[in-house]
């Protein structure tokens, strides 16, 4: 304890203090990071919660170094992280609701489509959305007993216990179909359901975070949702991006995340072997999310996600 009382505790660890301030500023000002060079801003925002891992590392180093300056500087990243993500640490799951939905990127190379389909159906969802379908017939066969109504458009599909109307592909500027829109006739009234699979993104050493095609598709999907005449809207799908990613703002600015509003924790869905980001989304408008959760792993590289809402 005597060593903590000498004046050197304020002189030691200045580099650690600087790193703590930089970490805090990176989280606090992440929206100011430019996307012009390698989509640096979007890349940072995709894994933004994980920057918090730097806090315990710096804390331990500050203790070892016996630096009061570094410990005080750590308050900036701690307060910033808690402000950004502290609300996600609590369980906001509620009771009730009358409409359950689930979505799953099943993986084009899935070795057991039937088991994957049954696992998603076991959630009790009234509507199931599947993405990356290359052998839709195997999923159709596995789900036929539970869902009387379905439609597959390109590589995305919707299965429903309630009648479907006005099913049509949505142009997200890809040249092939990876999104659809349908009206689900629920007992509580019509709900517009969008199913989408945004283009993939890559992290390349010489190009950074390559997400240009995804960003253009997000803008197109956002425009379609903005023009949707139904008051109740649900978006289900693999958006290849998180709610923090500014490039998805054309979509996320119009809809509410079921996980953020009524989930327990972060709800990371990808990769299934060690989930690090929630890129599989359920978002709503004109309805109240009651609960949201991830489902057990299937043979896909994504986890299925589900939510229950109150219409």
UniProtKB/TrEMBL annotation:
UniProt keyword annotations, A-Z: Endonuclease, Hydrolase, Membrane, Nuclease, Transmembrane, Transmembrane helix
Any Pfam family: Exo_endo_phos
Occurrences of domain Endonuclease/exonuclease/phosphatase (ranges): 102-302
MF (Gene Ontology): endonuclease activity
Top-level taxon in the UniProt lineage: Bacteria
Record-linked Gene3D superfamilies: Endonuclease/exonuclease/phosphatase (3.60.10.10)
Keyword Transmembrane annotated: yes
Transmembrane segments: 47-64, 71-89
Protein name: Endonuclease/exonuclease/phosphatase family protein
Organism: Streptomyces aureoversilis
Phylogenetic lineage: Bacteria, Bacillati, Actinomycetota, Actinomycetes, Kitasatosporales
